[in-house]
Amino acid sequence: MQKQAENNKRLVKNTIFLYFRMLLLMFVGLYASRVLLRTLGIDDYGLYNVVGSIVTMFSFLNATLSTSTQRFLNIELGKDNASNVEKVFSCSLLLHLLLVGIVLILAETIGLWYVMEKLVIPPGREVAAMFVYQFSVISICIQIIQLPFMSTIIAHERMNIYAYVSIYEGLAKLCILFAIQILPYDNLILYALLLLCVQFSVAIIYNIYCQRNFNEARFRIYYEKGLFRNMMGFSGWNIVGNLASVCNSQGLNMVMNAFFGTAINAARGIAFQVHGLVQQLISNFQLAVKPQVIKYYAAGQMKEMTELVFNAAKYSAFLVIIATVPLMLEIRPVLKLWLGDYPEYTVVFAQLILFRSIISSMTGNIVMVVHASGYLKNVGLFSGTILLLVLPISYILLKMGFPPYIPFVINIGAALGDAFFELYWMKRYIGFPMRRFYSNVYVPVFLLFAIIFTLSYGLQCIMIDCNEYIRMITVSIFSIIVSCGLIFRFGLSKSMRESVAKKITSRFMA
């Protein structure tokens, strides 16, 4: 019981650190998008976005190996096996170095050919595109080498360090924004170069901290056939899901560039910026939850793991609903205040991806169970196939003349299908309560979303002739109050309501 209380206390502490990190990155992200759009212009902003997508396509193994590293580290830490922790880290470092070699080969052959021959680039920006591409390749290689060290920090649940480094990273990126406005050089090339420098310095900081604080984090190449095979086996089936996810997101960005040019990439980039701000509400929470899910599974505490996943899924979705409903309804004045002018289709892109974020806020917690169990074969095959199909279907529909937002619509259906197969196979493999997840998580979340959205939309219709900024403020406040009230009454369990009410009362009575 005492250990459970300590875990909960650590979870809350880590979540606070991560939300502090989120607020800083949110501010930097909002300001950066405004400055970049004005400084670079729509075409260069879109060019940077789509070039980054090409590089990211070749690093799909990155997330796979990172997940594998975190899982095996958490399992060995859960078993309190120090020698095996060292072996896992060293084997992970070897795998990541091999991945760097693969990325460099792919990027300097297939990727380079695509940039030079197929990418739709505004006239006169070919040289800038090439510089940005090469800087992005180097940056992604640094990120890959850095990942075993970041995974170690997360596995040890040192989220405060994660937050502190983010403060430095955020401040450094703010300095970059000022630099590109005053230095007499090509803004796009300078921006990519300075970002590379920041990425390198962040990697150095993580490296030094890990080597000083964790015995396993040393530069030594260790090879054990059994462990190497197990990590590769876990990664192997996880590759399908990650490849599908990368093709789904970055591949669609390249397809849209082929049909509509860099302006549509700019609109998509801004929409994903909005989505990223909302996503951080849940990703930080889930990042703090994930190590405990894996440790519960490793210790055989299935009941505790299931309850944690259920609660994390519901509360993640509720956080997203509170943020997304007013954004979905009043995105136009928000974009106008934030960016001034913005590319066509930005509004509808943002609205569709915000709705999809409600689904992903729940399914992200199911993925934790998949990674903890290690049963990735059928999950990767079925879920990955669904996500991969989005790319050819979108291409065919765009070729037939459908509007640019059709891939976002297809992705909503794919997200629901992906979640179904993840739940189905977890039920088959470990007895995860699939039906109860639908009834206890999906039903209340979507029902509350529908009620909150309908009530807020009704107020928006009533105020349709009012000043758009007054309406934005009024609808947002109304939506947040209604969301909090309905979620508190119908979304939380009785014990959670009593706990929240007690804490609020004690604050006011103090």
Helix/strand layout:
Layout: H1 2-57, H2 60-78, H3 82-117, H4 126-155, H5 159-182, H6 187-213, H7 225-260, H8 262-298, H9 302-329, H10 331-339, H11 346-373, H12 377-399, H13 406-430, H14 434-462, H15 468-491, H16 494-509
Helix pairs in contact: 1-4, 1-5, 1-7, 1-8, 2-3, 2-4, 2-7, 2-8, 3-4, 4-6, 5-6, 7-8, 7-12, 8-9, 8-11, 9-11, 9-14, 9-15, 11-13, 12-13, 14-15
Explain how this protein is built.
With 510 residues, this protein is mainly alpha-helical. It is built from 16 helices and no strands. α2 packs antiparallel against α3, α4 packs parallel to α6 and α7 (225-260) runs parallel beside α12. The two termini are 29 Å apart. The model has no long low-confidence stretch (mean pLDDT 78).
Features of the shown structure:
510 residues, mainly alpha, 88% helix, 0% strand
Q: How much strand content do the residues show?
A: under 5%
Q: Could you spell the SSE succession in H and E letters?
A: HHHHHHHHHHHHHHHH
Give the averaged pLDDT, no decimals.
78
Query: What percent of the residues sit in helical stretches (DSSP H or I)?
Result: over 70%
Stretches where pLDDT is under 50 for at least 5 consecutive residues are: none
> How many helices?
16
Brief write-up:
With about 500 residues, the chain is mostly helical. The protein has helices at about 1-55, 60-80, 80-115, 125-155, 160-180, 185-215, 225-260, 260-300, 300-330, 330-340, 345-375, 375-400, 405-430, 435-460, 470-490, 495-510.
